[in-house]
Design goal:
The chain has 264 residues and is mainly beta. The chain folds into two domains: 54 residues, FAH (SH3 type barrels), CATH 2.30.30; 199 residues, Fumarylacetoacetase-like, C-terminal domain (Fumarylacetoacetate hydrolase, domain 2), CATH 3.90.850.10. It is 13% helix and 42% strand. It is globular and about 55 Å long. The termini are far apart.
């Protein structure tokens, strides 16, 4: 099931996405969910065309835990070694935006990059999750763009500003909940800028698996429903400029599209 979060007439709700097509092509409707999707819920039967609503970030995470250098070719293209253990960092909730929202080019950077990523959405509170239980805590998957001020990342020892500025974490367009970990671990992932392909890889190229990452992260911290894990990006990252439209597409999930605008 594809679950979206949206606003209509000033109200915010979750809905199950039904029909075929894309956000842009039409043909999709939302069956409004009673309650929140992390627990047992019912479909209301009240349906609205997706074209009539504003899509919001599909979840409001308490935290976004991102993993760096989880694809060997991406590490190499930036002149980095593959780390011995996963490199984790946070993106704040204020960085999260939805599909169709604008990425604001930060004033402190002159080199903004896209990074297409598979995002894992957590469905229940969990800590110290054993490998065999990871499947029980994953709610679903969505597309993410770990937008990065590359010059600031290289200049500053911490990545907080480079990867945590407002609008640097587009998520969406919805969460795919009907996908197994095995299926999510072998999907095509790509990024285009103004229709030109920049990144193309498979999630099977990840150095650390989805299970590895959940186990590693929950050794240190409690994850809550709606929290997000960004699993790293394949090779091909590159510049974004004001006016560009960047799209992240993941097989079996959908396409996340955002335009870059000047801040302010």
């Amino acid at each position: 099931m594809r679950i979206a979060r949206f606003s209509i007439d000033g109200n915010v709700a979750f809905g199950a996405v039904e029909g075929e097509g894309t956000v842009e092509s039409g043909g999709l409707v939302l069956d409004i969910i009673k309650g929140i999707p992390y627990t047992d819920f019912e479909l209301s039967g009240t349906k609205v065309p997706l074209s009539k609503v504003r899509l919001l970030p599909p979840v409001l995470p308490n935290k976004v835990v991102a993993i760096g250098r989880n694809y060997a070719e991406h590490a190499a293209e930036l002149g980095n070694e593959v780390p011995d253990v996963p490199v984790a960092f946070f993106k704040p909730t204020t960085s999260v935006i939805g599909s169709g929202d604008a990425i604001e080019y930060p004033s402190f950077s002159n080199e903004l990059h896209h990074e297409a990523e598979l995002a894992v959405v957590i469905g229940r509170m969990c800590r110290e999750v054993p490998r065999e239980r990871v499947k029980d805590v994953v709610f679903g998957y969505t597309c993410a763009n770990d937008v990065t001020a590359r010059d600031a990342q290289q200049r500053e020892k911490q990545w907080a500003r480079a990867k945590g500025f407002d609008t640097s974490c587009p998520l969406g367009p919805w969460v795919e909940t009907g996908m197994s970990i095995a299926a999510a671990s072998d999907l095509t992932i790509q990024a285009t800028v103004n229709g030109e392909q920049r990144q193309l890889g498979r999630t099977s190229d990840m150095i650390r698996s989805i299970e590895d990452l959940v186990v590693h992260i929950t050794e240190a911290m409690t994850l809550l429903p709606g929290d997000v894990i960004l699993t790293g990006t394949p090779a091909g990252v590159g510049p974004l400029n004001v006016g560009d439209e960047v799209a992240v597409t993941i097989e079996g999930i959908g396409t996340l599209t955002n335009k870059v605008i000047k801040r302010g």
